[in-house]
Amino acid sequence: METKCTRYVLITLGIMLFAWTISCSGRSGEAGKADISRAAVVEEDRDAKLMKMLLPEENAEFRLNNPIIVSVAPEREGRLYDSVKIFFDGKPVAVMKSGPWQIPVPPEMTGTTGRKSVKAVAFSNSKIQTITRFVIIYSDVTPEKLIYKVVHSYPHDQDAFTQGLVYDNGVLFEGTGQTAGSSLREVELETGKVLRQHNLDQSLFGEGIALYRDRIYQVTWTNKVGFVYEKSSFSVINKIYYPTEGWGLTTMNETIVMSDGTNVLYFYEPEMFTAVSRVEVYDNEKKVDQLNELEYINGEIWANIWQTDLIARIDPASGKVNSYVDLSGLFPGSKRLEINADVLNGIAYDAVNDRIFVTGKRWPKLYEIRVTE
After folding, report:
1. What is the maximum alpha-carbon separation in the chain?
2. Are 218 and 164 in contact (CB under 8 A)?
């Protein structure tokens, strides 16, 4: 005899069976739709590839002012695009609208050393494809290694961890480093006597300095802040900010040039301290990094290469190293308090009398040198 309980069980089982049937049917249908969808995506991805880049290869190497050939081809035979735009180092080169889909980057666009981007953008109806590769441009000259002669030596405070050096009208301005020991100084050339000194906050590690008109600029190592001083009083009149580390500084015409320990030199507008350009430094074989203290001398930027006895003489327009000055033996490592710390660092130029001064971190002497060309 059927009861309410029996009828309830049968109804419940029937509902569950119907639901299971619908559910299985639904999963099967969705799986089919998913397969179709995946196939469509694969086909769509394949169709999105309009072209392939034949030249240049990734990290291909070139020399300054040499043409760089950019060559592309359709991804699939018989499938053409409407046009291809070519860019080099972010700048437009040309628009190609017909074969052979190959064009040289003009030599005037390859006049600076460094790692440069080559980008091709293909257009076909509503589809766009972009391919980007990178090339490296090296110097077109092999830099000579020049020697030096000591003309004169002067006393230098051996406690001064020299980071920046500037000559001006008979005196030296010197920036020193070290945590809880950084300073800006005015130093008498002939005696090495410190005439004035401004100490930085103990949390700051002082780095390079530069003189621009009646102001002295000084950067710090990792704090991304620098200071502008009134030259006559060392009063702080402004702060400057930058996104990198601060290493060396120099003044070139109406710009201030800064290094950050890499192979890049940054050119800053002095008033707002806004970066206006940059250049990567390479010789004929490699990038030249660890650029430290800087000095602008007769159209070149001279840069100490940290932890070496070399000064790189750099063409600021192209980034290439024209030559190296080898100062080995000037102050031997055996005489230094710490071999890896008390390295060559500090270049100053007396433009009026054509004199070059160099020193190092905690060196007891400052040297006037003459370089043999």
Report:
1. 125
2. yes
